[in-house]
Every structure is written in C-alpha cells, then in structure tokens.
Amino acid sequence: MRLEGRRLWVKWPLLAALIALAAISLSGCKRLTFVRPNFDKAKYEHTGPDYAVRDDKRTKDASSARTRVQLAQAALRNGDLDGAERDARTALKADPRSVDAITILGAVAERRGDMAGAGQHYKKAVDLAPERGAFLNNYGAWLCASGHAAESLSWFDRALADSAYATPTAALANAGSCAATAGQTQRAERDLRTALALDANNALALGGLARIELQQGNAFEARAFSERRLAAAPADPDALVLASQIEQKLGDTAAAARYVQRLRAEFPDAQGSGTGDDGKR
Length: 281
What we know:
Layout (H helix, E strand, L loop, with lengths): L1 E3 L36 E3 L13 H21 L3 H14 L4 H13 L3 H14 L4 H13 L3 H12 L8 H13 L3 H14 L4 H13 L3 H14 L4 H14 L2 H14 L15
Antiparallel strand pairs: 1-2
Helix pairs in contact: 1-2, 1-3, 2-3, 3-4, 4-5, 5-6, 5-7, 6-7, 7-8, 7-9, 8-9, 9-10, 9-11, 10-11, 11-12
C-alpha cells in the first residue's frame, strides 16, 4: 500500500508524510515534528503477490487485512483513534505481519501521547521490513523526537539506501532537522539543501535552513528561507516565532510584531504567543 502525503510528503508503505515543523529557540532548545504518516490522501499499492488461481485461506486473510487497514486508515484520518486501533488490530488477527497495520497502531499511540508505545510499534515495523525506507524513516523520526537525535541519523541513512523509497525528501528533511538538534550543523545544512533540491517547497527543510542561517548570523538569508517556508505550507506557531525573531534581528520591529500578532490570533493556545521577539510576555 502506498500513502501520499510534515503534514509531510512520503508514500506508502504507510510511513511518511506529515507536516514538518521545527520549533525554535535561539537559546538552543528545539521542539521538532517530523514527516509522519499522513492519512488525508491515500493511494494503495499492493506489494504482495496477486492470487488469481485460488481463493484459499491465505488469500482471504490477506484480503481481509488489507480491507481492515483501509478502514483503520480512514478512521485515523477522521480522528477516530478508537476505530483506527480496532480495525488495525483486526487486520493483525488476519495477518500478524501487516506492517501497515502495525504502523497505524504506532500513529494512534503517538496521537494519544504514548511515545513509548508508538516507538514499540514503529520498531516492530522496522524489524518486519528492515530495508523499507518509509518504515526506517518513521522509526528514525521517533528516535529523534524521543531525545535520541544523533542515534536517529543512521536510520535515516538506511532509509535513503532503499532505492525503491518513493520520496527520499522525507528522510532527508528529517535527517537535516535531527542533525541540527544533534549539533551536526554541516550535515544538517547538507541534508536540508539536498531535500530542497528534490522538493523546492519542502516546508521542513525551508524552516530548518532559515533557523540555521539565523543562528549563523545571516539574517537576510534566514528571511528568504522563512518567507519561502510560509509560502510553501500553512503557518504554524514555530514558523511564526522564527519569522518574528528574524525580523527582530533585522531591526524591523513592526514586521516582528505582525508575526507575533498572527501567532496570538491564529494559535492563542500556543506556548510563547505573548509579545516580544521570542513571543514571551
């Protein structure tokens, strides 16, 4: 099965594309979100063999699992976490090795805030499909979000080694963001720029490069990447805070204030939606 999708740009085998935000704080602490499974747009590609001769139990089980996975995916897209979990578990009863169903369970756990449980599911998917780029990317993203940024990089490398991986920009953008978190600025810039060479509107890569340029004192270059980031995808709190900081650095306090006003108007519950160049009261 293939799923097209930081909220972000990868295709089935179910891993991959969810939105790409990277929260910023010039003090050095960052909050990241990654390319994740996106269940809004789905296209299915059967990777198993076609059974045209007989309709035996194996065929029926595989068909039942695929149907349940599709139902679980639809439920998750609609925010029905209980329904998604129920259908994914039913799929696993028919096919215990369905990495698609396992991945859905990981996404459900993550949305519920159970990062440890999500990691177990993502790791199991990798164990069952150790050379599939989408699953490797997802586990790497989970590692990075769980505080293991440096360790995550090897998983992104493995994802990129999969020649059948449909959208390597996902792993490249994630790798760049996580390399920056790990303090590996040279690798971060390399991977983010490579992601942009493949997808000029990759929001995660644009935001990451804007942050790097600002941290290196290149405010005008940071502004250019920030403006491209805001044009590439809907604004999120992290992008607006970063844009405000860039304008403050350039001395345009009026522009900085406008971004803060947008932050407060569009995301009133976001942390740091107050006033000031970093959004603090």
